[in-house]
Amino acid sequence: MSTIEESLRAIAERVKSHSSTMATEEAVKTAVVLPFLRSLGYDVFDPSEVVPEFTADAVGKKGEKVDYAIKIDNEIRILIECKPISVALERKHLDQLYRYFSVTNAKFAILTNGRTFNFYTDLEAPNKLDARPFFVFDVSDFNAGIIAELRKFEKGAFDVSAILATAERLKYTSGVKQIISKLIEDPSEEFVRMTSAGVYEGRMTSQAREMFTGIVRAAFREVIMDTVKSRLSNALADTEEVIEKIDTPIEDEPDVVTTEEEREGYMIVKAIVRDTIAARRIVMRDQKSYCGILIDNNNRKPLARLWFNRSVKYIGLFDGEAEERLIVDSLDKIYEYSDRLRATAKKYLQE
Predict the structure, then answer these.
(1) What are the distances in angstroms from CA 177 to CA 42, 169, 183, 193, 340?
(2) How far apart are CA 67 and CA 44, in angstroms?
(3) Could you tell me the CA-to-CA distances from 81 to 62, 67, 301 in Å, in that order?
(4) Which residue range(s) make up the domain with 228?
(5) For residue range 39-95, what is the model confidence (pLDDT) as tens digits?
(6) Are residues 49 and 130 both part of a single domain?
(7) pTM beyond 0.70, yes or no
């Protein structure tokens, strides 16, 4: 585990267990910000590198300070402003950072309440701090992608151009994700009208809008869940296949046995697509790991695969670029994929 990841886990646990004691900026600095800076390789005990209570006369407001300024190669490069953990970070909290950014050589600014870290730079206008962060992360919810971005801020790897190379993409990706999250939880009237237009021909009264708002919210979540479940199904299927190959000695492999369930599955698939492609072209070829359903008995023309020789059963579909395996808890489930099976069959019509 990396030093950054270890530190973030420790900070996350501290925030979770002791957030009630972080009611002041000083508590946030001590419990979160300084350990975070140490994980990035900065010497928090060296005031010429991590400058506390940094002030600059050019700001124009006497006595105004930022909590920390980070010096790299003796140049101010990062400014940090801290707020109590109970404070929701808002644009108004950028005032000091905004002024200091314009009169120093700082290239990045961080606003944090100990739980959330907002990273800013000057993508929109040179030497003028953007109003929106290009990178945001929550110490209680980080992943490998976040760790990779934080590594760019390590003392030994700090490279302005490398950070800026992905900053714009990160900024707009973050913004789009926030909009999508809001649409999931609270779909706008415009979004509800757009998504329901293709399925509802009636007048969009207030009652209909209320009904479809709930439907859109639920459908949005189900689409996400279905995508996750599909990926998990494929991963689980691949894992089971590898386990089967490991557990079965090559010299003792049994002969292929087509089960009654595989025969029924084949007949269902055949019945679904026979109005799309001639039934005589649909052939079953059973394998040890799966039962293949092919067009013209050609391995290069797969229609479906029945992965029934396992505890969790799947059907493999080929209407995309690669096989997608989906759980089938009963043979009737196959009918739910009728349109996708017909779409695959259509690909082979002219062949």
Answers:
(1) 31, 12, 10, 21, 29
(2) 13
(3) 17, 5, 61
(4) 194-247
(5) 999 999 999 999 999 987 666 566 678 999 999 999 999 999 999 998 988 888 898
(6) yes
(7) no
